[in-house]
Write a structure and sequence with these properties.
The termini are far apart. Helix content is 38%, strand content 19%. The chain is α+β, with helices and mostly antiparallel strands. A four-stranded antiparallel sheet has the order 1-2-4-3. The longest helix is centred in the middle third of the chain and has 16 residues.
Length: 129
Amino acid sequence: MEPLPIPCPAERIPDASGPNGFDAAYRAARQQRAVFVALESEGPRWRIKADMLTAPEHTVDAGVYDAVREAVILLVRTGQIRSDSSPGPVYFVLNDVEGELRARELAAALHAALYGALAPLARAVPPPA
């Protein structure tokens, strides 16, 4: 699997649905020592997974963690993901995202944020007015 660019366009986020999809995508990220991110289909809904364990030398600023956590909380409060989603700090799961396009947008924004680019996350999950 080819390394993901940073920031990663939404259409390049791997779809890890299927019997071996998650394992293959995770193994590729671990071999590349890169932050893992992928989508999984749950019928009409989607799950986003991201993991920092695949990038052992990679560090994330506390401000990034705060921004990701706040985005996840906002997504839960607005009913866009389930409350059993995980906001990190090492393993991130966003459960029950409606539609593949929205899941790809959020996954790409999360991936960018974990590499320090917060603008895509702010666009994907704007703070309440």
